[in-house]
Design brief:
The protein is α/β, with parallel strands linked by helices. The protein has nine helices and four strands, in the order H-H-E-H-E-H-H-H-E-H-E-H-H. It has one domain: Alpha/Beta hydrolase fold, catalytic domain (Rossmann fold), CATH 3.40.50.1820. A four-stranded parallel sheet has the order 1-2-3-4, sandwiched between helices. The relative contact order is 0.18. One of its GO terms (molecular function) is hydrolase activity. InterPro entries: AB_hydrolase_1 (IPR000073), AB_hydrolase_fold (IPR029058), AB_hydrolase_sf (IPR050266).
Length: 223
């Protein structure tokens, strides 16, 4: 999903690392209890990266928050796009989305489950190519996750107020209320955090307006 920004950030002189979580992209499902944040930390250790900025979207933003809270000395900057938040109770709208998605998958209607995600997560300005990309990514995720064993997360306690990273939380005006409220509320939880709402965006601004999002990233990273 970061292909549109990849070359722009490289050309600006940044060293980039991107990873799929387990059961996404080409990364196989986990077979034992795990946490995505632990996986990311192990990757950074393996690459001998002691400090890094983190750019993350949606569920990846939740992992970024956890990473920055548990190991604040490792994360220097945190740019979150439509982020989820650890431990936050879901709204009725988000629970209804989950119920409908589960019903469609259990009925074997993969096409309808994919379309539900496309219509839920993309804002009104998303073009046909963007919708096709999200369809492809979501179908791939469903296919990989359908083979995943039932594995529980490792429980870990942490406090978001421990985050030291310079933080910008971005929301989309056409997103579900959960994610707009999370982004707007983070400055009350994370010291020095800022909130920015994009009037044109849904849940996936990096795909909806790739060039605009790339400029936002560069502005934040070079400030």
């Amino acid at each position: 999903m970061w292909d549109p920004q990849w070359r722009i950030l490289l050309d600006a002189g940044f060293r980039l690392i991107r990873c799929d979580f387990r059961a996404f992209g080409d990364t196989p499902p986990g077979e034992e209890p795990y946490r995505d944040a632990d996986d990311v930390l192990r990757l950074l250790d393996a690459l001998d990266v002691r400090e890094t900025a983190v750019i993350a979207s949606s569920g990846g933003g939740q992992v970024g928050l956890e990473l920055a809270a548990r190991w604040p000395e490792r994360v220097t900057s945190l740019l979150l796009l439509a982020t989820a938040q650890p431990g936050r109770e879901k709204s009725e709208a988000l629970r209804e989305f989950g119920r409908r998605e589960d019903e469609l998958l259990e009925a074997g209607d993969l096409d309808a489950a994919v379309e539900l995600n496309v219509t839920t997560w993309l804002g009104p300005e998303a073009d046909g190519n963007t919708r096709a990309m999200v369809r492809m990514m979501q179908r791939r995720a469903f296919e990989v996750q359908s083979t995943a064993p039932d594995v529980e997360d490792v429980d870990v306690e942490f406090d978001l107020s421990a985050i030291k990273a310079r933080t910008l939380a971005v929301s989309g005006a056409h997103d579900l209320p959960d994610f707009r409220e999370i982004a707007a509320g983070l400055p009350q939880v994370v010291s020095g955090a800022r909130h920015l709402e994009l009037p044109w965006a849904g849940h996936l601004p990096s795909l909806e307006r790739p060039a605009d999002t790339a400029r936002l990233m560069l502005d934040f990273m070079t400030a």
